[in-house]
Amino acid sequence: MSASCEIPSFKLFETELTYSFLDIQPTSKGHALIIPKEHGAKLHNLSDESLSDLLPIAKKVAKLLGVTHDDGPEGVGYNLLQNNGRLAHQEVDHVHFHVIPKYDKETGLIVGWPAQETDFGKLGELHTELKAKLESGKF
């Protein structure tokens, strides 16, 4: 545990750009956070340099927690979660990723996925709009 932090921090990995530690309000055993040292309230506010360090650390955390092996169709799983904005459930205005082990259906992240029926006409219109933005470079 770090003695220099106001909130207890149980460090897992640290690089020049990133810090990872165990979540003090976990949803399951081993729930960990990965944060960039560069401040950015949302993902798009971070430099590409900071972003390039986050996923390799997430991978190391998952391996460290032992959730990367497959034990049949159910096995052990994990979620990598990152929220942007209050509407998307972000409570801390600093980018952070959660690595949340999923050992069973009752612990870890519980997700509902309200999928909509496909409207290929609307989907095609959106695709055309997005392609125009890509081609113009104005996004």
Automatic annotation (TrEMBL):
The active site is at H96. GO terms for molecular function: hydrolase activity. Residues 1-109 form the HIT domain. This is Hit family protein 1. A motif (Histidine triad motif) lies at residues 94-98. InterPro entries: Histidine_triad_CS (IPR019808), Histidine_triad_HIT (IPR001310), HIT-like (IPR011146), HIT-like_sf (IPR036265). Keywords: Hydrolase. Its EC number is 3.-.-.-. Pfam families: HIT (PF01230). One of its GO terms (biological process) is nucleotide metabolic process.
